[in-house]
Structure formats: C-alpha cells, structure tokens
Design a protein that fits this description.
Layout: H1 2-26, E1 35-38, H2 41-52, H3 57-71, E2 81-87, E3 94-99, H4 136-147, H5 152-165, E4 167-168, H6 171-179, H7 181-186, H8 188-194, E5 206-207, H9 210-222, H10 224-228, H11 230-242, H12 249-254, E6 258-260, E7 263-267, E8 270-274, H13 281-294, H14 302-323, H15 334-338, H16 340-348, E9 373-378, E10 384-390, E11 400-401, E12 406-407, E13 448-451, E14 455-460, H17 467-479, H18 484-489, E15 493-494, E16 502-504, H19 511-519, E17 524-526, E18 535-540, E19 546-550, E20 557-560
Parallel strand pairs: 16-17
Antiparallel strand pairs: 1-9, 1-20, 2-3, 2-10, 3-6, 4-5, 7-8, 8-13, 9-10, 11-12, 13-14, 14-18, 15-16, 18-19
Helix pairs in contact: 2-3, 3-4, 3-5, 5-9, 13-14, 13-16, 13-17
The structure holds 6-diazenyl-5-OXO-L-norleucine (DON).
Length: 561
C-alpha cells in the first residue's frame, strides 16, 4: 500500500509543481529586478533614477533616449530618429513607435545626382542636404504622453542637467570625433559644441551644450510645439537652409510618430517580435530563421551551418534591396516574406555544397563604425523597451544648427540614391526605397524581443547594414541556451548579398572553416575593426532572475537593481 501511495504521490507532486510554475507565468509573474543596458553609463544611471522615482520602463526609455542624445552625439540625438519597440505588461500590448526621419517635402529621387546623373555620395553624408526631418523629439513626447507615468519635465531633467554641466570626453568620443573632424571643423557651431579650439578635445574635457539644454527645456515645457513649431522650428529651418538644406516649416509641422504593428514569427519554439517597416530588420530576420528552420540548422555540421547561414543572409538582403521601403509609400509584402513557406521555398534553392554567387560584384566600401545606439529596458512590472536610435554616420551630417544645439542627421543616405548604387554601408536598393518627399528611408535598425518557454530577451545593436545579422547571431546564441554575455560578445560575421563577400571579425571563423567555405565558393573580407555595440536584457520567468549585458566593444553599462 505504501509503495502504491509513493508511486502515486511522486507524479502528483510533480504535477502540482508544474501547475504552480505555469500558473505563476500565466498570472504574469514579475521580474525580481529591473534592468537597463545602454551604450553609456550616464544613460543607464538616468534610466534607473527614473525607475526609482516610480517611473515605468517607458518613462525610463524617455530619460535614456534624451541622455544618449546629449552624451553620444556621434550616435543619436534630437536631430535624429529611431524605433522603440514596446511591450506593456498589464495587457501584453506590443507596438513599435516609428520615429524614423522623413525626407523633406522638397526632396526628389535625383537629389544626390550630378548633371551626368551620377551619384555624388558626399552630398547625402556631409552637410545639411543630407538631413531628414527628425523624429526623436516627437517620439519622446509620444512615449511620455501615451505610455509613461511621469511628466516630460521630470524625464528630460537628467539630460538637461548633463547638457548644461557637461560630460567628460572619453577615448570613444575622441575616436569618433577624429573620424569626422573635417566636417565638424567646417561648421562653426559644430566646432564650438564638439571640438576644442578646432581640434579633438583631450580625454576628460567637459562637453557643455547650453543650446541643447535650452532646446530640451523648450520640448519639456511646450511638448511637440516646442520643437516642431514656433521659434525653434524657425531657427532650425533658417539654419538648415543657410547650410544648403531644403527643410521648410511645413516639414517640421507635418512630422508625426507612427505606431506600427511589430513583425512576429517563430523559430525553434521561440517567439520573435521585431522591427516593422520602414525597418528591414524584422522581416529579414524572419526570412533567415524560416530558411534555417526548413534546413534543420541545429543538426548540421559546422561548415554546413555557416554555409547555410550565409546563403540565408544573402537571400534576405536580396529581398531587402528589392521589396523594402516605407510602408506608407510602397506595398511591402510582409506576409509573404515572413511566411515559413516562403522561407522553405528559398531553402530549396540553396545548394548545400556550393555558394550561390550574388549577381554582380560591387566594390563598396562600408564603415566599420559603432555610431547609432541601442538600449534595452525591463522594469519590475515586466514592461519592456528595445530601442535603436540613430543620426546615421558618426556625428550625423556634421552640422549643428546655430542657436539650437541640434546636430543634424545624415539619414538621407539610407535611401537608394540611384538603383543599384551602394550607400555608405554598401547596401543597394531600387524603386521601393527611392527618395520621395515625406517618405521614410529604409533602415536596418532591429530592436527585438525573443521569448522561449523560460526566458524573455530584449536586444539590439547599432552597426549599419550589419545590425540585422548581429541580432540574428544573438538569437541563435539564445537558441543554443547561452546567456546575454555570450550574445553581446560573440565574434561576428555577415553577408549582405552585395558585395558578395563574408565580412568578418578577425576571430569569427577558424582557418579550417574558412578553407572549407572557400572550397564551396565563398569569398571573405576580414575586417580591421570589431563592429557593433549590443545591449541585452534577459528575464528568466521561472526563477524571476534578471540578467543584462553590454557589448565589450563599447563603453556601455548594463545594470540590474
Ligand atoms: O537606419 C539604419 O539602418 C542606419 N542609419 C543605421 C546606422 C548605424 O547603425 C551606424 N552604425 N555603424
């Protein structure tokens, strides 16, 4: 009898335990801690300060965005744009705030062509003509008004204080400023704000931005009108036009944040939620994962895995070039491109022994920079934010508009200036991403959530065209059971269809593997520098534990508390 009881009791207990575990999850179990990972310690600290004051993850996101705009002028700013992927714990609602820049209404498809119809690349990179209409200020207001608990004044306070008092130059700043020195020197207000007597400031020098502090104050006090209408708008338009740009007051007054439904899909029992168009990130990641799923990626040998992964990347970036653009202007076939059957079809076209050559060889140069920025936030209620923000190239267009402290983006370079002509990241595009007044330029920024039975991850990174494959490699690390430290530090490789090469960090692939892949027809381009600056947070739902990691390539800080 006892034996019978015992053998009966064991499964009963396990059933009870299992039920308790699951019901806790179903009842919306809360994380034991909050976590923030961002590319700068001051931003991470400001976010935690807001959480301590009773703000939620969305409030913290406003503070972190604003501080990054002050302390990482080479990466993001009020003059730039971005995507904020949100998850609200109370009802599971998910959305993507699209604060991407728009082309000024006077922009047209031939904006960067000379009289012979050739692209003049520098025109979409340096100077005011390269700048789209900024989305960050509108997104800060939208996020606060629709999702936050605290006032915009409270949330912008840390950024205002740092802009006024100054932040210390570090080696990272010096590297970025050295890279963009000529264009910063060419514009008086930029040199005034970011250089010291016309040269890169020494480490420890304080960068004070009183005009930017005033602009933040105007935004805090007057909301959207503080930036997009009235005196500041007039100053922005005058300054941009004086520097050769084409902005009008109407461009600013017309700017709107758009909420978009994130891209979702599954891979190996994980649910992926990622950026929607005008980002290409979510779609490309799902196309690749659907191909991998079809080919049983985890069961393949190492050379086969790398081969299949590269072939999947190649195909996703080919589709990016052909189909993707601003969904308000072009019909993006989202359903098709993210459907498992479409991935299966692409998988069938992959020769498991040979590389498929991309159609032609473009010898594009591509930056190895780490400008643009990402942060990940989880609060104690389980609200989440993954946000990737940009002004594009380091220090954007290099132009500070006098009297505003606003550094202009050069995001217009993300449009396809001419069919098949690569942009600064070597990306090609066509009609779907052609320049048009009021249109948003296609992006690679890929803020992402990943959930499996046990964990919820929040991740993303800067890195131009390589953002998508970095996030992908992070997801694959998670699928293999590794934690956030592994995702952010893993050596990286990348293929983007054109140029037809595997770009890689020096230690990403072994000599033996490179030999095997070369034999299959792949070409390699080892990169001089490491790339990316991933920020990740993970919450283990079964234990409640929270972990966070900041890419060792950058100077960021991940902190739980
Ligand atoms: O939106 C995009 O795809 C680019 N403007 C991002 C630029 C970037 O990540 C630069 N970092 N190296």
């Amino acid at each position: 009898m006892t034996r019978v009881m015992r053998s009966f009791k064991a499964p009963l207990w396990s059933l009870i335990i299992l039920f308790c575990c699951y019901s806790q999850v179903w009842a919306g179990q809360k994380p034991a801690q909050a976590a923030i990972a961002s590319a700068h310690p001051l931003a991470t600290q400001a976010g935690h300060e807001i959480l301590r004051k009773g703000g939620n993850a969305f409030d913290a996101a406003v503070a972190v965005t604003a501080v990054l705009a002050v302390v990482e002028p080479y990466s993001s700013g009020l003059g730039g744009g971005g995507f904020w992927l949100l998850h609200r714990a109370s009802d599971g609602f998910q959305t993507m705030l699209d604060g991407r820049e728009r082309a000024p209404l006077a922009a047209h498809r031939d904006l960067y062509l000379d009289e012979q119809g050739e692209v003049v690349a520098q025109k979409s990179i340096d100077g005011a003509l390269a700048a789209g209409i900024p989305g960050v200020p509108a997104a800060l207001v939208h996020l606060t008004e629709n999702y936050g608990k605290l006032s915009l004044t409270e949330l912008l306070q840390p950024a205002m204080a740092i802009a006024a008092k100054g932040f210390a130059v570090d080696e990272y700043y010096r590297r970025m400023a050295s890279w963009r020195l000529p264009v910063l020197q060419a514009h008086e207000a930029s040199a005034q704000q970011f250089l010291l007597q016309g040269e890169v400031p020494p480490a420890g020098h304080l960068i004070k931005q009183p005009d930017l502090a005033d602009t933040l104050k105007a935004l805090a006090e007057r909301g959207i009108d503080g930036f997009y209408r009235g005196e500041l708008a007039q100053r922005l338009v005058d300054g941009v036009r004086a520097a050769g740009g084409i902005w009008t007051l109407q461009d600013l007054a017309d700017y709107r944040v758009v909420e978009r439904r994130p891209i979702t899909g599954h891979y190996q029992g994980m649910r992926i939620t990622s950026a929607a168009p005008p980002s290409s990130g979510g779609i490309a990641i799902l196309t690749i994962l659907n191909i991998l799923q079809e080919l049983n990626y985890p069961d393949l040998s190492e050379p086969q895995r790398t081969h299949v992964l590269v072939e999947a990347m190649r195909r996703a970036y080919r589709d990016r070039a052909e189909y993707l653009g601003d969904p308000d202007f072009v019909q993006v076939p989202v359903e098709k491109l993210t459907h498992p059957l479409y991935g299966a079809g692409l998988a069938r076209g992959i020769d498991l022994q040979r590389a498929t050559p991309s159609q032609s060889q473009h010898q594009a140069t591509s930056t190895e920079g780490q400008d643009t920025t990402h942060f990940s936030i989880l609060d104690r209620q389980g609200n989440r934010v993954a946000a990737t923000l940009s002004i594009n190239y380091p220090f954007g267009a290099g132009v500070v508009v006098p009297g505003t402290g606003v550094l202009l983006n050069d995001e217009m370079d993300d449009f396809s200036a001419s069919p098949g002509v690569p942009n600064v990241y070597g990306l090609v595009g066509g009609e779907a991403n052609a320049i048009e007044g009021g249109k948003r330029m296609l992006s690679s920024m890929t803020p992402t959530f990943v959930e499996d039975a046990q964990r919820i991850a929040i991740l993303g990174t800067p890195g131009g065209s390589r953002i998508i494959t970095m996030v992908l490699l992070g997801i694959l690390e998670m699928a293999e059971g590794r934690g956030p430290q592994a995702w952010v530090s893993r050596p990286r490789f990348h293929h983007q269809y054109l140029p037809d090469v595997i770009q890689m960090e020096a230690d990403a692939l072994s000599e033996t593997l490179i030999g095997q892949l070369t034999g299959m027809g792949h070409n390699f381009k080892p990169l001089k520098n490491r790339y990316g600056n991933m920020q990740a947070v993970v919450w283990d739902k079964s234990s409640g534990q929270v972990d966070a990691a900041s890419d060792p390539r950058g100077v960021g800080m991940a902190k739980t508390e």
